[in-house]
Design brief:
This protein is an alpha/beta fold. About 35% of the residues lie in helices and about 30% in strands. It has seven helices and 15 strands. The two termini are about 20 Å apart. Pfam families: LytTR, Response_reg.
């Protein structure tokens, strides 16, 4: 897994690199870390296609192109990358969510907090890069979990909904749930399982996903959904 750090302060950049390597030096997960002192330098590497990073740690306030502007450029090229912001100003946090930031860290950086956030980020990348395998009409398919909006159980079929496609296969809800990472997915109804990454709003008896898609939340699953989604949101804070 590749991590890019962009901070115009050499000292802080070095501190973050040290935290990353100390956090994962005993793990089986291989981590590669590159440091950049300006947004322009990192953007040039991304644009040339020299390196592809799964996680970006960006200082919001930098001379020239800011971390927020850099994040917008990253999002245009990669909707799935994890972006973590560091800042000294709380008032800039809201803007961070406009580019789907995974997390933000207030300066001065706390080593334990940074380690915890990094662990979550790596776990998130690993889980979303996993593939869901199924077979239908003698054809085998593999779809990245992160591309799946939700599942629907309809009679003997499991329907899989992506942003621009739909698949189906013969199966049961019980078997589906046993195969999913239920820290990312949540059941909202006897017939629906939703990817929490795509939830935008919750209106009591339904959730609204990105793209304006509504999925029902039944009374029987309302309490479970509320608690599960609350826990999911809290892990991102």
């Amino acid at each position: 897994m590749k991590i890019a750090i962009c901070d115009d302060e050499m000292k802080e950049l070095g501190e973050i690199e040290d935290i990353i390597y100390s956090c994962f030096n005993k793990e089986s997960q291989r981590i590669e870390c590159d440091g950049f002192l300006s947004s322009e330098e990192l953007l040039e590497v991304i644009t040339r296609g020299d390196r592809k990073y799964q996680i970006y740690i960006l200082d919001i306030e930098m001379p020239g192109m800011s971390g927020l502007e850099l994040a917008e450029q990253i999002r245009q090229r990669d909707r799935k990358a994890v972006i973590i912001f560091e800042t000294s100003h709380k008032e800039l946090m809201q803007k961070a969510f406009d580019v789907l930031a995974f997390h933000f860290i207030l300066k001065p950086i706390d080593k334990l907090q940074m380690s915890r956030i990094l662990q979550k980020a790596v776990e998130h990348v690993n889980s979303t890069n996993a593939l869901f395998h199924f077979q239908f009409s003698k054809k085998k398919y593999s779809i990245a979990y992160q591309d799946i909006l939700y599942f629907e159980s309809y009679r003997r079929l499991i329907r899989i909904y992506l942003i621009d496609k739909q698949y189906e296969y013969y199966g049961t809800m019980a078997d589906l749930k046993s195969r999913l990472n239920m820290s990312v997915f949540v059941q909202t109804h006897v017939a629906f399982v939703v990817n929490m990454e795509y939830i935008e709003t919750y209106q009591g008896d339904y959730v609204c996903l990105k793209g304006g898609i509504s999925v029902p939340v039944s009374k029987g699953y309302s309490k479970y959904f509320n608690q599960t989604y609350r826990d999911f949101v809290l892990t991102r804070m």
